[in-house]
């Protein structure tokens, strides 16, 4: 297997990941949405399995060209809530900071698929200064969330410099980083990168992973380097049809994450990004899956099932309700018990 990142339909066919009769459709998709499959991800794909959950996440398909009613180019209102380039200010106490818009891989369900992949979207020095100045001028802000794109695509020296600038702001208590790198391109998690993440201000790393097979030996080693350096690790997972919309599959994933010192944080219902309807289960299906996990996993292995309200109103939990109108509370087995309230 070649070590380079695969970026075109022809390269995917040559690598044996796509049959030649899908090259034309994959090329049409790549003409609209950025494609990238790292060598680490390519090695996980089983091209003989038409339902391979890794392939479904990363390989382009014709279904992406079909837009459903309600799809939105900016499904969670990033653009409306961006007062300064690179900043999204949705909640009172925290902001997103997007220093760049490139990723090691491009997930086919990405809610920012209309903007990621743009190398020109990297903030200039002046734009980054303006973004940091926005944060520094607002003492109500306590947390900065580095996202993008993937912040761990920055060279360690630039990442270190950015963290140092944020650490120097007195009212910033937490820096959170969201990344696919540890699972999609684990060789990037070098000693230099790990060192760049260590700071006096609390730095939390949220790793995006949707299937236990993504936790390859190399990915587990990368997570061990991060956890071993004292970095608290969280995970984010998207509930995806044909990938992980099954309680047993999610149970295996969440157990594997906890074994690797990663706390499952959010299970996201997919956003209304264009061309992603084929990934979206119903909320009722999602609640049933989450309910099936209750009692099968300890609390530290249970993420919160959330929906990001379209338009930018924020995330809300949408998990099952165990309190019933008849004054009973349901346990994990489905038995009901009276509870005075």
Write the layout of secondary structure elements.
Layout: H1 9-14, H2 23-32, H3 39-42, H4 53-58, E1 87-91, E2 94-97, H5 125-136, E3 143-146, H6 156-167, E4 174-179, H7 181-184, H8 191-197, E5 202-208, H9 217-228, E6 233-238, H10 247-259, E7 263-268, H11 283-293, E8 304-309, E9 314-317, E10 328-330, E11 336-338
Parallel strand pairs: 2-3, 3-4, 4-5, 5-6, 6-7, 7-8
Antiparallel strand pairs: 1-2, 8-9, 10-11
Structural commentary:
This protein has 341 residues and is an alpha/beta fold. It has 2 domains: 1-65, no CATH class; 66-338, Alpha-Beta Barrel (TIM Barrel). Helices cover 28% and strands 16% of the residues. The chain has helices at residues 9-14, 23-32, 39-42, 53-58, 125-136, 156-167, 181-184, 191-197, 217-228, 247-259, 283-293, and strands at residues 87-91, 94-97, 143-146, 174-179, 202-208, 233-238, 263-268, 304-309, 314-317, 328-330, 336-338. Strand 2 (94-97), helix 5 and strand 3 (143-146) form a beta-alpha-beta unit. 41% of the residues are buried.
What's a quick, concise take on this entry?
This protein has helices spanning 9-14, 23-32, 39-42, 53-58, 125-136, 156-167, 181-184, 191-197, 217-228, 247-259, 283-293; strands at residues 87-91, 94-97, 143-146, 174-179, 202-208, 233-238, 263-268, 304-309, 314-317, 328-330, 336-338. It is of the alpha/beta class and 341 residues long. It is globular.
């Amino acid at each position: 297997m070649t070590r380079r990142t695969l970026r075109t339909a022809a390269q995917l066919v040559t690598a044996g990941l796509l049959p030649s009769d899908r090259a034309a459709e994959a090329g049409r998709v790549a003409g609209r949405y950025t494609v990238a499959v790292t060598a680490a991800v390519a090695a996980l794909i089983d091209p003989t399995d038409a339902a391979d959950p890794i392939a479904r996440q990363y390989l382009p398909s014709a279904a992406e060209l079909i837009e459903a009613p309600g799809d939105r180019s900016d499904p969670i209102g990033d653009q409306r809530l961006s007062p300064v380039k690179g900043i999204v200010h949705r909640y009172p106490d925290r902001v997103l900071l997007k220093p760049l818009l490139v990723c090691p891989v491009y997930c086919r369900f990405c809610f920012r698929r209309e903007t990621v992949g743009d190398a020109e979207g990297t903030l200039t020095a002046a734009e980054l200064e303006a973004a940091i100045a926005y944060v520094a001028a607002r003492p109500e802000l306590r947390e900065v969330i580095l996202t993008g794109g993937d912040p761990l695509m920055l060279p360690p020296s630039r990442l270190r410099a950015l963290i140092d600038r944020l650490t120097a702001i007195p009212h910033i208590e937490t820096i959170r980083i969201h990344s696919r790198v540890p699972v999609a391109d684990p060789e990037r998690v070098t000693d230099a990168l790990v060192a760049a993440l260590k700071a006096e201000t609390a730095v939390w790393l949220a790793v995006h992973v949707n299937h236990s097979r993504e936790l390859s030996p190399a990915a587990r080693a990368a997570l061990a380097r991060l956890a071993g350096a004292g970095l608290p690790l969280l995970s984010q997972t998207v509930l995806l049809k044909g990938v992980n919309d099954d309680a047993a599959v999610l149970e295996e994933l969440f157990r594997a994450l906890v074994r690797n010192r990663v706390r499952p944080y959010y299970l996201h219902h997919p956003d209304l990004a264009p061309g992603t309807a084929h990934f979206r289960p119903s909320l009722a299906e999602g609640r049933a899956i989450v309910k099936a996990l209750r009692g099968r996993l300890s609390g530290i292995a249970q993420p919160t099932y959330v929906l990001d309200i379209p338009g930018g109103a924020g995330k809300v939990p949408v998990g099952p309700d165990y309190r019933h109108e008849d004054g009973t509370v349901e346990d994990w087995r489905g038995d009901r018990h009276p509870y005075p309230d």
